[in-house]
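User: Show me a protein chain along with its predicted structure.
Assistant: Here is one chain, sequence first, then structure tokens.
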Amino acid sequence: MSFSEFSEHDYQLIDEAYDSLKQVAHNRCRNEREREFVRKAYDFANSAHKNVRRRSGEPYIIHPIEVAKIVITEIGLGYKSICAALLHDVVEDTSYTVEDIRNLFGDKIASLVDGLTKIKTALDNEDRLGGEMIASESLQAENFKRILLTMGDDVRVVLIKLADRLHNCRTIDSMPEHKRDKILSETMFIFIPLAHRLGLYGVKSEMENIWLKFKEPEAYNEISQKTTQDLAKRSKDIEEFVAPIEDALRSSGFNVSIKKRIKTPYSIWYKMRTKHVPFEQIYDLYAVRIVYNPRDDKPQTERNEAYLIYSTITNLYSENPSRRRDWISQPKSNGYEALHCTLMSHAGVWIEVQIRSKRMNDIAEKGIAAHWAYKNDGFITENDSEMDKWLAEIQEILVSDEVGAMEFLDIIHRDLISSEVIVFTPKGEQKSIRNGATALDFAYMIHTHIGEKAIAAKVNMKLVPLSHPLKAGDQVEIITAANAKPKMEWLSFLQTRHAKTKVIEYFRDNHAEIAASGEKIFSERLSTMGINPSNDILRKFLDYSQLHDTEELYFRVGLGILGPEDFYRIINEDSLASSQKPDEYYISSGNSGDRKYVMAECCNPIPGDPVIGFLSADGSVTIHKKSCVVAESLASKFGDRVIIPKWLISDREYPIRISLKGIDRVGLLSDISSFISQTLGINMRKLQLSTDEGVFEGYIELLVKDKRNLDNMVAGLNKIKGVQDVVRTDI
């Protein structure tokens, strides 16, 4: 932040921003009293932030105004949240206190502002887009923990924080590149999955697109250009697809509105990367959303009309049954309900159709805020318990003494990105459990006693071990024995935090014995890593685990909670100590002067790729692609170690893999190898192609000097007769 007298232009910008807020707030507020509260909050915040500027140079008050607009338009919260958004930086950045807010605006608004103020340290100091602050990894992890702790008091604090993060993403181009990458990594690692879990798809999608725009700018621009061109060609086809649907539904008496949309650049990029296909093979680029008003407010009527609409439109167009998704009979755990199907238009284009009621659409657009608004209005659905159950599970993790801040961050990340599957009890009762959970996780979910006495399971009438992973639709029966008891090895395959916690609690009766065994294991593991036990090493493990008791540390080692991977991580991540960072980093032949550059094997970056570096205490730098998931995790926890290196021209060659598909023919292999080796002069390390009924598929591993070298090769391979798909994939 900076301070300087506002000009007439600044005051004009502020007035324009506030006018736009008033327009959306007027409709959201229910009466003049609520509108007066919003005006009062604005006046107070505007006075408190007078002559204060953001890094971009604009008046600081514009930021809380924009956050308040997001709270209204993207999330749909009420006047108290609007006021809290306007006031969310006042307590931290000025001399005003929470008590001042309470005296002026009441307990609830003060409570919301207090919750937002407590979410600070690493993240909020970056969010200020101002001063320099380097936070330790434990502070960053604790900050994420603090964010979610506020959900137990009032989930609106987290929702406003998401609005705050979205606006900071919108204005992130004013940040230095290394800070921008840190904030975007945090956003991808925690905030985007959190927005998804809370049902805020609009917020999630916009954050994803901003992430892609800065992390993979070349891909973002290319995909945006191609979608614009494709839409221009297909616009008439989409209109001709929608017209018969609209006519048929209206003539059948349905009250509907129909909207057209195209996949976002991020969703296209993600599918291209995970499916290893080019843009041209993303066949469901387009979607049509049918939103209907049911004839009455009975849940059964609402559901029945969705299926009647589905029946009507599938009489008009052919459907791809494998793409059908029924989230009305089985809603997502974040409250999302809809019926999806994919239809073939008469122009030969696959188009996804989403069918939602007005209530379902509100929940899809506004997430948990709309979910609870309908719940408070007395509209209860079968899915209410799923959202409440997830929030309860988060609280259980937060208050657990077994979970340190760093471990907590990974647990929450896994929880946020995980999906759930529906399984059934022997009596046919439906249960929702995390995808990948085992039969033993299911046993503990039913009851702790059943988990502790479990010896095996039957899945779909077939006997399986307790470690058997469950799939959607499985019917599960747990076999117990009176003399059975938990085993320590269960901790190695249990997937749910609840089950793990119950097993750990069981073994606390043998704490001394297990701790003694753990102390021995601790020394042996350090020895195999070539490290002598010392007080400093012990302190590193205690800090990582957020423990003060050495016996408790050994207990966790003895149980296997701290396994070999944790040892490696603690020792190696600790070596990423903060140090004075020079202004520039240049990657030449892997080493530059006394500095060593290590190319991360998880993503194999090559010159020309957007990259991010992580600085170690010994001066070495590990280089990742900016979009690498490992780099995202590291940057979200160790933001102060992020550097932005630059590529220099060198003779070094880098390993990459190219995957190919196409129509097999005589001489194809010879043409491919000849083009790479003779025409381009590139060294192949491995070539593997297989054919099946005239179709070939395989990959080539080779060495290239830079991305331009790679792009030329991909373009040339695409011109070879029979080759249809050429994409870069990870080795």
